[in-house]
Amino acid sequence: MLQYLIHLPVASIIFVITLAMSFYGFSHPEFLYRYMLHPYGLNRDKKKAYLLVSSGFIHRDWMHLLFNMITFYYFAFGLERLLVSQSGSLGHLYFALIYLGSLILSSLPTVKQQKDNPGYYSLGASGAICAVLFSYILFDPKMMLGLFMIIPIPAYLFAFLFLFYCIWAAKNSRDGINHDAHFFGALSGLILTIVFYPWVIQHCISQFF
């Protein structure tokens, strides 16, 4: 872990803080409610803007945390390493901006949609995790991913299927999952990566020819 902290400090710190806050929240429900995203409360008290970030470091239960942290482990550390290889120490900053920026941007549509719903709460790092995954896909669109963590599928095809599913699920699903956050997190990851590395579009396309 020390090597990760030395060479990949941003991903390491985010990983540790997310585990610590989530573990604490599992046995302290009042802590979860205090730091969940609550659009109704945020809309009426702008001082609660910190909820846009804090809600991404806590999780509902063990399975919610496990799924997000497995994806984080496989792609966040790799993305920070990749960005550092491209930009030197500036890559650490770019990774932080992609992760935290997408965490905020992925929640803004939900804040707007649910601003008059006092009973709506949301939590979890899924928006930022999707951003990391889609950012990584831009650099390696033909890598193989596991659909449902089982079926091998090229990353670019997974990306299209995932976005279409998010659009469909946001309108039709009643599973309690914030699919809008997944969708806008993925888009934020793509956009911020392109802002920092405009050449990545040509690089991504060139992988198919």
From TrEMBL:
Taxonomically, the superkingdom here is Bacteria
Per the record, the GO terms for biological process are: proteolysis
In terms of InterPro entries, this protein maps to: Peptidase_S54_rhomboid_dom (IPR022764), Rhomboid-like_sf (IPR035952), Rhomboid_protease_S54 (IPR050925)
Named from the GO MF annotations, one term is:
serine-type endopeptidase activity
The Peptidase S54 rhomboid domain sits at 48-197
Instruction: Give the stretches traversing the membrane.
Output: 6-26, 65-84, 90-108, 120-139, 145-169, 181-200
The membrane topology term of the UniProt record is:
Multi-pass membrane protein
Q: Where in the cell is it found?
A: Membrane
Asked whether the keyword Transferase is assigned, the reply is: no
GO CC terms of this entry: membrane
Q: Is Mitochondrion one of the keywords?
A: no
Record keywords? Hydrolase, Membrane, Protease, Transmembrane, Transmembrane helix
Q: Which family does it belong to?
A: Belongs to the peptidase S54 family.
The protein, known as: Rhomboid family intramembrane serine protease
